[in-house]
């Protein structure tokens, strides 16, 4: 027999259904609560609110488990390619060879962006943050593909928008970087795979080819997979809520990019490196910075530490830490920031403040060191996160639209002034 939750309000008992997910997660279904009782629930920051039922990503924050469509993140990061994972997230299954070839060649057909878009770049100041440029550019794609505005177009037409987005985001991201240096844009090369092509557009110069190092390609592939989805976080929930108004996919993903930019979310990877550099330049006294992070009067926080859902360890951080050692060793890079990061992690993990609050390194703690080692400039770190998260945003948008979820519209408890008379200006 299915479980029932009982709630007593004003002396009356109401029964609410309990639903259970495929990994035994349980939820009280309150969708009829207001209708039945006149009450709503309140949960600032949505710490206890399930906004949807989803079959894309499962995570267990206590056990440190992360699965995409049932496959463990450890296996995918070790064995899969980023396009395979994108296909898995978006279409629900790992592709066979033919499906993968079709998927990759369809993406390759759309890697160029309209020449007119190049003029937009020129209008940005050279020091413009690439996340601001990227979100505007992605939103602008809707103006070049007006057919994407129709929410009722065919599955085939929707797929075309999805493939265009997967193809053009790397081009626009790399060009945002090139533009920041006022260097010439490098056009996509379709003989390269997804990661190779991105590195080529980032680092090649018109006068010389970029040597695509397989160590760097493999590190990038792993990082993108680790960031590809993370269920209902800030940017993904933004994507679902913007998409629920039937806004086009380009604007929807652009909103996700903006949400990701914040330092408490994807922007943390840039903040981590800046923090490690600050500690390094300050003489490397890790204890001093740990004390600062614990001081409630001091706004400083250990960036790359703590997570809303992981309260034991972030499985992505474990994989990245190992990859970080590996990549630096293979590339022969000796970065003093890695030693500081390791020391910081050790001190914090042994400290009662961090232990009692279950604060552990998250995905962003070591990713920046790898990005730095492979030549990605600090300001581009969050763009790299966006590049990785793109298939997840698309998958979540697709699931939400296919399930015909209603427009997102939370309620509130009003705590402002009650009704009062307008006072003329002369009497105030
Ligand atoms: N350094 C010092 N203290 C911290 C930190 C930190 N990084 N994170 C949390 N705390 C403390 C916080 O002050 C609070 O203490 P108290 O209970 O005494 O008031 C307690 O731990 C709980 O923190 P919270 O802010 O209520 O927790 P939250 O779940 O709302 O926030 C978080 C999660 C990730 C925003 C937060 O841990 C944080 O700001 N971390 C640093 C930023 C960061 O690394 N963000 C990347 C997250 S992973 C990438 C992604 O998916 O976006």
Primary descriptors:
428 residues, mainly alpha, Rubrerythrin, domain 2, Citrate Synthase, domain 1, three-stranded antiparallel β-sheet, 18 helices, 6 strands, 51% helix, globular, binds carboxymethyl coenzyme *A
What strand order characterises the main sheet? 1-2-3
Q: What's the average pLDDT?
A: 94
- End-to-end CA span: 64 Å
User: Which kinds of small molecule does this entry bind, naming each only once?
Assistant: carboxymethyl coenzyme *A
- Number of helical elements: 18
**CATH topology group of the largest domain:** Citrate Synthase, domain 1
Query: How many strands in all?
Result: 6
- Count of structural domains: 2
Q: Pairing-aware structural class of the strands and helices?
A: mainly alpha
CATH class of the largest domain: Mainly Alpha
The outline comes out as: globular
Q: In terms of per-residue confidence, which ranges show pLDDT below 50 for 5 or more consecutive residues?
A: none
Tell me the radius of gyration.
23 Å
What is the percent of helical residues? 40-55%
Percentage of residues in DSSP E strands? 5-15%
The description of the largest β-sheet is: 3 strands, antiparallel
- The second-level CATH architecture of the largest domain is Orthogonal Bundle
Report the order of strands and helices. Answer: EEEHEEEHHHHHHHHHHHHHHHHH
CATH superfamily of the largest domain: Citrate Synthase, domain 1
